[in-house]
Design goal:
This protein is an alpha/beta fold. It has two domains: 9-19 and 91-217, Rossmann fold; 22-85, DNA polymerase, domain 1, CATH 1.10.150. 41% of the residues lie in helices and 12% in strands. The protein has nine helices and six strands, in the order βαααααβαβαβαββα. The protein has a six-stranded parallel β-sheet with strand order 3-2-1-4-5-6, sandwiched between helices. α1 (22-34) crosses α4 (67-85) and α4 (67-85) runs parallel beside α6. The chain is globular and about 55 Å long.
Length: 220
Amino acid sequence: MVSFSPLQAVIWDMDGVLIDSLPTHVEAWQVILKRFGYDYTYEQMTPLFGMTDVNVLKTLSGERFTESERGALAQEKESIYQDLISQKLQPLPGVIPWLENFRAAGLKQALASSSTVKSISIILNALQINSFFDAVISGEGGPSKPNPMVFLRAAEKMTIPPQRCLVVEDAVVGVQAAKAAGMRCLAVTTTNPEEKLQQADLIVARLNQLTISALQSILA
């Protein structure tokens, strides 16, 4: 059996790690925002990836909307996103083999995402990967990354110390959250270039390019 000692658990982000969902999130946001005269591009929205929907909207629109209006618009955006993403779901290269590798090594695994509970459920069911996870944590209603709360909750649910956890992320705020939680971080460049993810302990373009020896090198 391959050893990843002293690692005891892996915490996966979802969007941009399990699936390439950023274009669909942007498409859903554009439907909402154009109604109010905003015309944000894909490139402008990429740095916000990893935040909760409410925080994305607040960042883009400032104080234009009340808290309740932001909540309602975020829910509407999420509904549009769920309809769109359900038509084109497939895991990113390397995801399934590494889920299997970590399980074979005896590691616990959790999913910790800023997405809503419903979106997480739709994606896990569609990909048929629920059985890999010992815990599933949504950041819905909680503090947004780079606050580390969603990762700390995942570690607590698995009863694993944060320093024995590895986070798999793609967003700048996600990497920041992982490091703030005191966890090692593996970053994939699905949505951000390598130079923006330098806080991570290891960076790969896709998980199918990750080697066991490279991962073991950051655990020593």
